[in-house]
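Q: what sequence does this backbone want?
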């Protein structure tokens, strides 16, 4: 594998679409499921390659890009050969000029068994140059001895005649896109001229490369494609890299996070916030919604409307208005029919929906992607701090008297020596804090989240 760092980033436009969907619906989605959905299609994420340096500061593996076709190369020489092979006419014009034909009689010639190029008689003065040049230009990855073994001797008169005719002409190359006209007599001179004049403008070394177009990924060098496949397979098994990137992008868009059962991270419009009905003045409609959800676990919006705003069968019904899914979201990821109830258009239902929406956007009620509703639970009380130790000079008798005096008090009201509550006192697993949302007891979503 090449010594490069590769990271997968969700596409910014797709994340914007997801954020709009979450803000419009108010629903909570498991962030790991969102990451899996992003990795299903290549247009939903970007490949970001970065070069690495060795301990001595030397570049471990370089990267070059061609400005003419956005191709990527891991060696500058490969990039130069690519430009001269694919874009030769952009920089040079080939001119065929008559030359003196080879003297003597030739009965056989050497021919490359792979490409069919006629190299000429093995005893010809330019034979070795042509042999090495062909190997370097077209078969550099093949060992020279293996390439040489594929060269065959051909005694066909037509092939010999073709070689003689080819030698009766020579090629000259006129330089284009240069201030002064210039002619070059060989491909070696062409390559040298290209490096001196055009290389800096056409081929650029880069430290970071972002590949977002799926078509361009197929044109990457083989080692880079292998690295991309391995990284993608790892992320599909456990997309922690994509989740971290999603978390940062969602945070910039003012979305919040919380965990269900201390394990499944969800992204939503507001973090869960417990609503104390005894201490907070709320309307009767809000109170009924909270009490119904607490009394009916895993209920949905449809169940809530049927119970608190019953509608007679004779009344015409219409589907509950819901925000349109984000662009590119498949039908499977839109709200389920169960969540999209069909209440009648009457003030009671409208008021109920407004109250529910307020509860969701304040974090007092969580509506999961599956449509299930749950309330934010009361955070566990903080354990009391241990009392400071008695002064060293305190009389032992005084401590014994105090202990005897308090012996009649119930043990449930006294913390243990370590400052922890007694065994019969139940508390939430973790205390609440301004930075950490309270643990939720709701069942996580079973439906997939929206898709980019």
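A:
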């Amino acid at each position: 594998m090449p010594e490069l760092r590769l990271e997968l980033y969700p596409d910014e436009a797709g994340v914007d679409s997801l954020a709009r969907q979450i803000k419009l619906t108010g629903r909570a989605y498991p962030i790991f499921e969102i990451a899996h959905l992003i990795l299903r299609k290549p247009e939903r994420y970007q490949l970001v390659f970065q070069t690495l340096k060795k301990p001595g500061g030397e570049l471990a593996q370089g990267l070059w890009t061609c400005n003419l076709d956005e191709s990527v190369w891991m060696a500058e020489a490969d990039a130069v050969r690519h430009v001269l092979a694919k874009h030769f006419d952009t920089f040079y014009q080939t001119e065929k000029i008559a030359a003196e034909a080879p003297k003597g009689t030739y009965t056989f010639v050497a021919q490359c068994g792979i490409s069919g190029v006629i190299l000429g008689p093995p005893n010809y003065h330019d034979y070795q140059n042509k042999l090495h040049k062909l190997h370097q230009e077209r078969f550099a990855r093949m060992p020279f001895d293996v390439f040489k073994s594929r060269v065959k001797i051909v005694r066909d008169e037509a092939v010999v005649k073709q070689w003689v005719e080819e030698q009766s002409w020579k090629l000259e190359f006129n330089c284009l896109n240069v201030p002064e006209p210039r002619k070059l007599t060989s491909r070696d001179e062409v390559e040298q001229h290209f490096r001196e004049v055009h290389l800096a403008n056409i081929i650029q070394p880069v430290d970071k490369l972002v590949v977002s177009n799926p078509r361009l990924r197929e044109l990457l060098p083989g080692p880079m494609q292998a690295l991309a496949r391995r990284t993608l397979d790892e992320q599909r098994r456990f997309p922690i890299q994509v989740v971290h990137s999603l978390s940062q992008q969602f945070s910039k868009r003012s979305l919040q996070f919380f965990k269900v059962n201390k394990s499944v991270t969800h992204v939503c419009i507001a973090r869960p916030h417990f609503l104390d009905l005894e201490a907070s003045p709320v309307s009767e409609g809000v109170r009924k919604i909270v009490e119904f959800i607490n009394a009916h676990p895993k209920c949905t919006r449809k169940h809530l409307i049927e119970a608190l705003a019953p509608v007679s069968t004779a009344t015409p019904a219409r589907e509950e208005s819901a925000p349109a899914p984000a662009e590119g979201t498949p039908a499977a990821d839109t709200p389920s029919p169960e969540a999209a109830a069909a209440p009648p258009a009457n003030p009671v239902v409208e008021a109920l929906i407004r109250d529910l929406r307020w509860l969701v956007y304040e974090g007092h009620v969580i509506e999961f992607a599956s449509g299930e509703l749950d309330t934010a639970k009361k955070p566990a009380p903080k354990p009391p701090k241990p009392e400071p130790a008695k002064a060293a000079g305190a009389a032992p008798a005084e401590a014994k008297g105090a202990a005897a005096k308090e012996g009649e008090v119930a043990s449930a009201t006294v913390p243990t020596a370590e400052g922890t509550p007694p065994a019969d006192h139940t508390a939430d697993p973790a205390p609440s804090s301004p930075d950490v949302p309270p643990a939720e007891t709701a069942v996580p979503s079973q439906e997939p989240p929206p898709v980019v």
